[in-house]
Amino acid sequence: MKRVRYTKFTGDLASEIDLEDLLKALSDFLLDSGYYDPFTRFRDLDHTLDDLREALRRVLEHGDFLDESMRRKIEQMAAENNLDEFIDKLMERMQQENYISSPMQPERTRMSDVSGQVGQPHEPSRFSARFEVTDKSLDFLGYKTLRDLLGSLGKSNFGRHDTRHWATGIESSGASQHYEFGDTLNLDAPATLKSAISREGLGLPLNLEYEDLHVHQCEYQSSCATVVLLDCSHSMILYGEDRFTPAKRVAMALSHLIRTQYPGDSLSLVLFHDSAEEMPISHLARVKVGPWHTNTREGLRLAQRVLARQSKDMKQIVMITDGKPSALTLPDGRIYKNPYGLDPLVVSETLEEVSRCKRANVMINTFMLASDFGLVQFVHTVSRMCRGKAYFTTPDTLGQYLLMDYMQGKSRTIH
User: Fold this and answer.
1) In terms of Cα–Cα distance, which of 131, 133, 151 is closest to 141?
2) Closest Cα to residue 284, out of 73, 10, 54, 27?
3) Burial (Cβ within 10 Å: 0-12, 13-18, ≥19) of residue 241
4) I want to staple 172 with a disulfide (CB 3.0 to 4.6 A). Which of 23, 67, 70, 216 is the partner?
5) H or E stretch including 218?
6) Is the pLDDT of residue 208 over 60?
7) What is the per-residue burial (b if ≥16 Cβ within 10 Å, else e) of 119-137?
8) Burial classification of residue 259, based on how many CB atoms lie within 10 Å of its CB (0-12 exposed, 13-18 middle, 19 or more buried)
9) Per DSSP, which regions of 22-131 are E strands?
């Protein structure tokens, strides 16, 4: 008879690392927006497998997410020159568990083989394979951002977009009403029986008529289509501050919030610069700013086309920007640019597009990351025209304002 012998699984150190904690430690590296920060530990790295290996080395050596026991084991491996093999196992595990994807498996490259000296950093290979951040990683980072943002707000009342209308549904929250054709048959049995008894008297058999049927009322909950209009012009990383990475984090957090708490809603992403383009949320991690101007009108035009495809009760544009409109797409397709001051032509055409949003019942909520007087007046004009709201905020408080606006502001839009 064949026997099977079981032994205790001891595993290895790479299987003991919590990949979610590791991913959070790598978040600044994975969500790089092109901003050069001399104080970050990932300032000289790109999205290649060699650079990922180096980023892992740096977070492991720093060890701020490790407990004391794990930190001592890492230090011992580094002293014995075994850290490279451990990092390769971590990378393989990240690929196996679908946190990153790459067209080729990571090849082990020891520091001593490249530089000739153990412990000396090496330059990434010219032909090093690149990797992509998967949807699973983006979903986790969005969840972490959402939890951090809502945790800083204290207690938050998660729910749906409540309105002043009544409807029939499963969750009852009001008095019963007579059943009408098309209502959800969430029968109010006591009210139905009471109606039949009051009509025929107490006796058996009890005949129920159509007019005896009563159903529970519940609050009508609306659905919302949202387009995040994200400025990715070069000014988002100028002036010694990274404004684009926090905006990316907030967009991911908003995506997670909508998918888990507002399943009837939709979220789209539009980037605007010299022109505008629709971008899937899943590609947000690898989006970077560029040497571009700010074509706000083209972004609004594309956002309206995206919203026109949605059949929702409410439609809104959430615009995150830090600069003035400085570009315009001319009828012949050429891009007119004027980065100096508020150009009257650019401003007038942009406000005309805002008027079209108003006529289409699209509300614009603007989150401004600048406080120049001229820009403040421009944003106030946009908000007044579309009955939207203007928030003058910073990268640190952007997420709190945006999420609270999304969760609480919709109840005031349908009456």
Assistant:
1) 133
2) 27
3) middle
4) 216
5) strand 214-222
6) yes
7) eeebebeeebeebebbeeb
8) middle
9) 100-101
CA–CA separation, 96 and 128 (whole Å): 20
Binned at pLDDT 50, 70 and 90, residue 273 comes out as: very high
pLDDT of residue 372: 75
Residue with tokens 């998660």: 158
Separation of alpha carbons 119 and 111, rounded Å: 6
pLDDT tens string 75-87: 888 888 888 888 9
Strands (E), 62-160: 100-101, 132-133
Q: Which two tokens stand for residue 6?
A: 């079981």
Distance CA 169, CA 183 (A): 8
- What structural domains and CATH numbers belong to the chain? 13-133 (no CATH), 150-159+223-412 (3.40.50.410), 169-221 (no CATH)
Residue-level pLDDT at 115:
36
Cβ distance 35 to 232 under 8 Å?
no
Percent of the chain with pLDDT over 70: 79
